[in-house]
UniProtKB/TrEMBL annotation:
UniProt cross-references to InterPro entries, sorted A to Z: PH-like_dom_sf, RTT106/SPT16-like_middle_dom, RTT106/SSRP1_HistChap/FACT
Assembly and binders: Interacts with histones H3 and H4.
UniProt-recorded name of the protein: Histone chaperone RTT106/FACT complex subunit SPT16-like middle domain-containing protein
Signal peptide: none
Acidic residues bias locations: 388-398, 429-452
Molecular functions per Gene Ontology: histone binding; nucleosome binding
Listed Gene3D superfamilies: 2.30.29.120, Pleckstrin-homology domain (PH domain)/Phosphotyrosine-binding domain (PTB) (2.30.29.30)
Family indicated by similarity: Belongs to the RTT106 family.
Polar residues composition bias: residue spans: 76-85
TM spans (from-to): none
Region feature (Disordered): 57-85, 357-452
Residue span(s) of domain Histone chaperone RTT106/FACT complex subunit SPT16-like middle: 250-346
Pfam families, per database record: Rttp106-like_middle
Length: 452
């Protein structure tokens, strides 16, 4: 092996620089003459390992099988100097940290080795059999990183969702550019049994340290533009506890997007719909408004109107999530109000849409007919109300005694007969009293005559 330069200790500079780029202390020790033979052997061995690894790796994003040839070349070689440099870094950068047997569900469903590189800060997944890098993303491209408990699992576990720029399902990449895929991988709750440093030393086995906590710590130390976000009960917690793990709080609500079932997580940075493809993340800066539709006794629908960060109002798209349990309505509504997300449930367009659910769509005639029906119903209701008011007034003004005898009705004949009966009874009573008085006075006069 030939080298371009030799240091003062007689060591090849290029080999030392390449082998110990991430270990300054070792590079400094290599300048000592007493250690020269040892470091020369180590440097050559390390360089040979790096060369073999580089020869078996792939670019960041594997080329699609159905794309045009020009596009394949762009992905492989990079559309700019930055992308080309990223591909080289992914292949050549030494590993700082790795965890074996990690279950990935996006963008591929298989067990891979999760790696974080040193210096250049890349997150990548390596095939454990072929040792090839399947996919990866630069840490400075990660816009959102989430750590969420997996719903409806007997054993507690966490899903890490890595969402690069333009991979949120809302904002598309610029024309001609290709965005890295979102990554989702699962970590069991418990100690890290297969986590190692770049030198092969096992880590994450301290008392009380978990695999989830270790990966979250490594990501936070290496990401440049974000940090890992976890659910917070101060933001939202489901009204229904986790059914499969009694005592655990649930931070999700089950919902459907079309026929696709998934989970909504209401987080401090936005709303996530997971864990189906495509993954959707509505950061607050993309949410135009939120509304409720089809509010029934047991379920309701949540509609999110989103605008791409690089788009205009014409690019707005509405996403509907249906069959949400009514028990979670209060918590979701409080979350929306707390973050100032505009509730457009009562907007004019929304009212028209809800009212006209059974009418034919996109026909001016049906809309006009509906308007006519509404107006006619209003006039009929108004006329009926006026008629009822008039009847009420007539009942209040009615006085039976003010009507003439000739205008009497059958309904008052019973009352007249009853009054006549009482008058006759009074007359009869008065006549009887007068006769009794006369009889008494007459009898007394007769008695007085007899005495004389």
């Amino acid at each position: 092996m030939a080298f371009a330069a030799i240091n003062s200790a007689g060591m090849p500079i290029a080999v030392i620089e390449e082998a110990f780029v991430t270990e300054p202390s070792l590079k400094k020790e290599s300048t000592m003459r007493s250690h020269a033979p040892l470091f020369e052997d180590l440097a050559r061995y390390t360089s040979s390992l790096q060369a073999r690894t580089a020869s078996t790796t792939l670019p960041i994003v594997p080329p699609p099988t159905d794309g045009p040839a020009a596009k394949k070349r762009k992905i492989q070689n990079g559309s700019s100097g930055e992308t080309a440099q990223a591909s080289v870094n992914l292949k050549d950068a030494p590993t700082q940290f790795y965890v074996q047997d990690i279950s990935f569900s996006m963008p591929q469903r298989k067990k891979l080795t999760l790696e974080v590189t040193a210096g250049h800060r890349y997150l990548r997944a390596r095939n454990q059999a072929t040792k090839e890098v399947e996919f990866g993303v630069s840490m400075d491209q990660i816009r959102h990183a989430l750590c969420l408990p997996v719903p409806e699992k007997t054993q507690k576990q966490f899903n890490f969702c890595i969402i690069p720029e333009f991979a949120d399902g809302i904002t598309p990449p610029p024309e001609g550019a290709t965005a890295p895929d979102a990554m989702v991988f699962t970590v069991l709750d418990g100690p890290a049994k297969a986590a190692f440093s770049g030198s092969g030393q096992q880590i994450g086995n301290n008392l009380g340290e978990t695999a989830e906590g270790l990966i979250r710590k490594i990501l936070n130390e290496n990401m440049l533009n974000s940090s890992v976000v976890r659910p917070d009960e101060r933001e939202f917690v489901s009204a229904m506890p986790e059914a499969h793990r009694k005592g655990d709080k649930a931070y999700h609500v089950k919902a459907f997007r079309g026929s696709k079932e998934g989970y909504l997580f209401l987080l401090s940075t936005g709303i996530l719909f997971a864990f189906k493809k495509p993954l959707l993340f509505f950061s607050f800066d993309t949410v135009e408004s939120v509304s409720y539709t089809s509010v029934l006794q047991r379920t309701f629908n949540l509609n999110i109107l989103a605008r791409p960060r690089n788009g205009s109002e014409e690019d707005n798209e509405e996403f509907e999530f249906s069959m949400i349990d009514q028990d979670n309505f209060g918590g979701i509504d409080e979350y929306i109000k707390r973050h100032g997300l505009q509730d457009s449930s009562l907007a004019e367009a929304r009212r028209a849409k809800v009212y006209n659910v059974n009418a034919p769509k996109n026909t001016d005639e049906s809309a006009a007919a509906e308007t006519t029906v509404v107006e006619e119903e209003s006039e009929l209701q108004k006329a009926q109300r006026e008629l009822e008011d008039q009847e009420d007034e007539d009942e209040e003004d009615y006085n039976p005694g003010s009507e003439g005898e000739s205008e009497g009705s059958g309904s008052s004949s019973d009352d007249d007969s009853e009054d006549e009966f009482h008058e006759n009874a009074e007359n009869v009573s008065d006549g009887d009293d007068e006769d009794l008085i006369k009889e008494e006075l007459g009898s007394e006069a007769e008695d007085a005559g007899d005495d004389e």
